[in-house]
Specification:
Blueprint: H1 2-36, H2 42-62, H3 66-74, H4 78-87, H5 93-99, H6 102-110, H7 114-121, H8 126-132, H9 138-147, H10 150-161, H11 167-170, E1 177-178, H12 184-191, E2 203-207, E3 213-218, H13 219-224, H14 231-234, E4 242-243, H15 248-258, E5 262-266, E6 272-277, H16 278-296, H17 309-336, H18 338-343, H19 346-374, H20 383-413, H21 416-446, H22 455-478
Parallel strand pairs: 1-2, 4-5
Antiparallel strand pairs: 2-3, 5-6
C-alpha cells in the first residue's frame, strides 16, 4: 500500500514538473515570436504576455507543498530555476530554502537581496534557522539575530552550538508542557487555547517549576481518562529520554526500535529543553544515506546537477586522481607480465574475470560492514570475529565459483593447469577483497572518518591490481 502511494506521488510530481516546464517553454516561444514581429506598443504586449504566464505559474506554485516546490527547483536548469524562484511568494521563501538540497540552496541564496534573506529567515523558528544559518551571509545572520527576542536568541545560539550530528542539532524547541498537579480538564482547556498543536505532538511533557521532566502524558491517555483525574495519576513517569549531546545516529536507532513519534530532550542539568520528532529523524536518516552513497563513489558533497562545470570538476577530481593512480599501477602490473601473456594468450581473456569477481565480492563485504557500523552493531573487539567470518565466506565462494571457472577454463583451453591457476587466483583474490572490505571501513571509523568514504574506489583498485598480480604471477610460476 505504501509503495503504491509512493509511486502515485512520484507520478504526480513528474506531471507537475512537466507542466511547469511546458509553461516555461511556451513563454520562451511566445517571447521569441514577439521579438521578431513589429507591432504597435510592442513592449506593452510583451509585458502583458509575460505577466499572464507568470500569473499561471504563481497559481500552480501556491497550491504546492514547500517540499514539492523544492523538488521542482532542483530539477530545473539554473535560469529557469531562478525565474520560478522569483515567482514564489516571499512568505514561503524560508520553508522552501529549508527543503532544497544544500547545493541548490546556495544558488537561490546568491540570487536574493540581503533584505529578502532577512525576511525569509525571520519566518523560521530558532531550530529551523539554525539549519539555514551556515548558508547565510554573516551580515544577514547578524540582522536576523538582532531582530529576535531574548528567548529566541538564546535558543538560536544554543542550536548553533551543538555538533552537527548530535540530538541538539536536530531537536525542536516547540513543545507543550504542563504541571503534574493539575487535572486533565485544565490540560484540555489549555490545549484549546492553541491555534494548532506543534507538528507530531503525540504526548505532552510534564515538568516541575524548574523545568525538570516528571513524566509524559500521551494524548491517548488524556482523551480516555476522567477529566477530574490529576496528571500525576495517569502520566508515564519514566519515559525514554535523550540528551542534547547524544549522537543523532543512536537517536535514530531508538526511534526505529521503539516506533517513537517524539521524545523529550534534556540538557546536562536534566532540564527539559526541547523534543526530537520523527520527521527530524527521518530527514537525518535520508541525509546520511545520501552522503553514504556519494562517499562510496568518492564524491565529497551533494552536487547540483545543473551546477557550473568548474564546480562539478572540483567535487569529483580528488578521487578520480586517486583512481587514475591506481589504474596506472594496475596497468604496470599487467606490463610486468607481458612476456607471460604473449606466450599464453588465454591469460588476457581470463584475468578480467578474476578482477571483476573480486571487486564485486569486496563491495558486498564493505556494504555489509558500513551498514553494521552505521547501526552501531560493531564494537572494536568484534574485528577479529568479522575477519574470520568474511574470510571464511570468501574461501568457500572462491573454492566453489573459482572451481567452476577452473573447469570452464579447462574445457575452453584444454589445460588442467590453467584451470587450477584460475581456481587458486579466484580464491586468493576473494580473500584479499574480504580483508580490504573489512579493513577500510573499520580503519575509517577508528579515525573518525566516514566509513563509506571512497570504499568502492579503494576496493576496485585493490582487487584489480591484486587480482592481476595473483593470476598472472601464478600463471608465470606454473604455466609459462
Amino acid at each position: 500500500m505504501a509503495d503504491s502511494e509512493e509511486v502515485l506521488h512520484h507520478d504526480a510530481m513528474q506531471r507537475r514538473l512537466q507542466e511547469v516546464r511546458a509553461l516555461l517553454d511556451r513563454q520562451k516561444r511566445v517571447e521569441s515570436l514577439l521579438h521578431r514581429q513589429e507591432m504597435p506598443r510592442h513592449a506593452l504586449v510583451e509585458t502583458l504576455v509575460t505577466k499572464q504566464h507568470h500569473n499561471e505559474l504563481t497559481k500552480r506554485l501556491d497550491t504546492m507543498h514547500p517540499a514539492d516546490v523544492a523538488y521542482l527547483l532542483e530539477a530545473l536548469p539554473l535560469n529557469d530555476r531562478l525565474l520560478v524562484w522569483d515567482l514564489v511568494r516571499a512568505e514561503r521563501d524560508g520553508e522552501i530554502l529549508l527543503e532544497v538540497s544544500d547545493a541548490v540552496r546556495e544558488s537561490l541564496i546568491d540570487a536574493m537581496e540581503p533584505n529578502e534573506l532577512v525576511a525569509a529567515a525571520e519566518q523560521l523558528d530558532a531550530d529551523e534557522l539554525a539549519d539555514l544559518a551556515p548558508d547565510l551571509p554573516s551580515e544577514v545572520l547578524q540582522n536576523v539575530f538582532s531582530s529576535l527576542d531574548v528567548e529566541e536568541r538564546e535558543q538560536l545560539r544554543a542550536a548553533m552550538s551543538y555538533a552537527e550530528d548530535s540530538v541538539g542539532a536536530l531537536m525542536d524547541f516547540d513543545m507543550v508542557t504542563v504541571r503534574e498537579d493539575v487535572t486533565l480538564e485544565v490540560v484540555l482547556r489549555y490545549l484549546r487555547r492553541f491555534d494548532e498543536l506543534p507538528d507530531h505532538t503525540d504526548q505532552i511533557f510534564v515538568v516541575d517549576r524548574n523545568d525538570k521532566l516528571r513524566g509524559v502524558l500521551s494524548l491517548n491517555t488524556l482523551l480516555i481518562n476522567d477529566v477530574d483525574a490529576e496528571v500525576s495519576s495517569v502520566m508515564r513517569e519514566h519515559p525514554l529520554v535523550l540528551h542534547m549531546s547524544d549522537s543523532a545516529e543512536s537517536a535514530s536507532q531508538a526511534f526505529e526500535r521503539y516506533d517513537l513519534v517524539s521524545t523529550p530532550v534534556l540538557d546536562q542539568e536534566e532540564r527539559l529543553i526541547g523534543r526530537l520528532t520523527v520527521n527530524a529523524v527521518m530527514d537525518f536518516i535520508l541525509e546520511q544515506s545520501e552522503e553514504e552513497q556519494l562517499a562510496q563513489a568518492g564524491l565529497r558533497e551533494e552536487e547540483d546537477i545543473f551546477a557550473p562545470i568548474i564546480d562539478s570538476v572540483k567535487n569529483r577530481w580528488a578521487w578520480l586522481a586517486i583512481n587514475l593512480g591506481t589504474a596506472f599501477f594496475a596497468s604496470r602490473v599487467i606490463g610486468a607480465f607481458e612476456g607471460s601473456i604473449e606466450k599464453l594468450v588465454a591469460l588476457a581473456a581470463l584475468m578480467p574475470i578474476v578482477a571483476g569477481i573480486g571487486g564485486n565480492s569486496g563491495n558486498q563485504t564493505i556494504t555489509m560492514i558500513v551498514r553494521a557500523i552505521a547501526l552501531g552493531q560493531i564494537q572494536p573487539e568484534a574485528a577479529r570475529r568479522l575477519y574470520r567470518k568474511e574470510l571464511g565466506v570468501s574461501l568457500i565462494n572462491g573454492v566453489v565459483w573459482g572451481g567452476l571457472l577452473g573447469l570452464l577454463a579447462w574445457g575452453l583451453y584444454g589445460s588442467w593447469g590453467l584451470g587450477l591457476v584460475m581456481t587458486a587466483a579466484m580464491t586468493l583474490n576473494l580473500l584479499l577483497a574480504a580483508f580490504v572490505g573489512v579493513s577500510v571501513p573499520m580503519v575509517m571509523a577508528r579515525f573518525g572518518r566516514d566509513p563509506a568514504l571512497g570504499g568502492s574506489v579503494l576496493i576496485t583498485a585493490v582487487t584489480d591490481s591484486g587480482g592481476f598480480f595473483i593470476f598472472l604471477g601464478l600463471a608465470t610460476l606454473f604455466l609459462v
